[in-house]
Amino acid sequence: MLVIRLQRIGKKHQPSYRIAVAERRSKVGAPPTEDLGSYEPSSKKITVNKERVAHWIKVGAQPSATIWNLFVKEKVVEGKPRPVKINKPKTAEGAAPAASEAKPAEKPAA
């Protein structure tokens, strides 16, 4: 299945992204099927080939949540923004809580 997603390019601490169509199971750095545009988060500059985006969505390519939100913002597609899932690292259930999460020791009343 095809997916439209961001592919990071650029230097360290200077991210720049390519909007690309690729196979869902392909590696992130693999060559994309087609390049649809670019996104620079530092300047908020987005360039998109709207005709090709419409073609790939019509063919069945699924945009990621971030790409969908960018397309809605740029009025490439119509719809509501989607919530973006962020994977947080899981802690062991039996482990003691971190120092910031621990309750402060209560002082006995005198």
SSE blueprint:
Layout: E1 2-11, E2 14-23, E3 34-40, E4 45-48, H1 50-59, E5 62-63, H2 65-73
Parallel strand pairs: 1-5
Antiparallel strand pairs: 1-2, 2-3, 3-4
Q: For the terminal residues, how far apart are their CA atoms?
A: 69 Å
Tally of strands: 5
Structural category is alpha+beta
CATH structural class of the domain at 2-73: Alpha Beta
CATH topology description of the domain at 2-73 = S16 Ribosomal Protein, Chain: A
Give the low-pLDDT segments: none
**Mean pLDDT level:** 85
Q: Residue share in helices?
A: 10-25%
What is the rounded Rg?
Answer: 21 Å
Second CATH tier, the architecture of the domain at 2-73:
2-Layer Sandwich
The count of helical stretches stands at 2
> Strand-residue fraction?
25-35%
| CATH homologous superfamily caption of the domain at 2-73 | Ribosomal protein S16
* Overall body shape: elongated
Largest sheet: 5 strands, mixed
